Amino acid sequence: MRIARPRLARRALLAAPLLLPAAARAQAWQPSRPLRLIVPFAPGGSTDVGGRILAERMSETIGQSVVVENRTGAGGAVGIEAAARSAPDGHTLLVATNGAFTLAPHLGLMRAVDVRRELVMASKLFTTDVILVVNPALPVGSIAEFLAYARARPGQLSFGTSGVGTGTHIFTELFMAEAGIRMVHVPYRGSGQAMADIVSGTIQVMLDQPASALPQVRQGRLRALATSGPRRIAVLPDLPTFAEAGLPGATAQSWGGIALPAGSPPAAVARISEAVREAVSHRPTAERMAAAGLDAVASTPAEMEAFVAAEFERWGRVIRERNIRVEG
Description:
CATH superfamily of the largest domain: Bordetella uptake gene, domain 1
Number of domains: 2
Strand order of the largest sheet: 2-1-3-10-4-11
Distance between the termini: 80 Å
Oligomer: single chain
Number of strands: 11
Structural class: alpha/beta
Low-confidence stretches: 1-20, 22-26
Largest sheet: 6 strands, mixed
């Protein structure tokens, strides 16, 4: 005898997949070949360091190796365009940065890619302050001494950044506006190249991420004067913040996240997001990031999209109010 299945039971069976936890649903997609993680800057900076630490852990957990590919140039635009133009199949990832997603669009940069339409966010990866560092030949030993020295010499000091329109560039522009100083901008293709020049004395000043600045500070090749975040950082507890130095308006943090080409399968985005959250909750991985001055943190895709939207509005307002412009 055929027994009719109750209607409520049929509905429960149909709805069962929807009741699974997000982690279980994410497991429905798995990569079929090695993943490519595009870092749009040269090796050595925070974006690269954070991406490589993540890639190593994900290679252990996601079932495929994750290969880091540095695609540099045009303030990150070259690598970002390469990611956006890749097949939306879940196998190409991008280490997205605040410079590309919340600064460059307001400055007329990143014209080849509409990052908010052509890329989708999977998760936040890290936040980090920037450190004001100077060549030790500069006769200043504190942020107060530096400000006095720079104010007395408008246009005589040069500062390096990882590219026109990047976070380090705009943070320095904001810092100069708040401090009432003027320096000459020297853009590079990545913070690693800029770091080599400040150590040699070719340029004198940088606001850079801890990942690339800390090793030089620890070896005495650079002098650290202050940090940009809302509180002092654990790896340099004796350094004051900009706010403590009387420049609260210069407070800023960089961030990195993971993005995929628009049109990537939602299940792939969810699986990558889960993999990032697993990585940053893995204590050895988080400790490696902390040692590089990175605060490991993850989010859901929706949380990251909302965060990027808020950052976009905030920095657009700063750029307009400060009349910050980019040449070349």
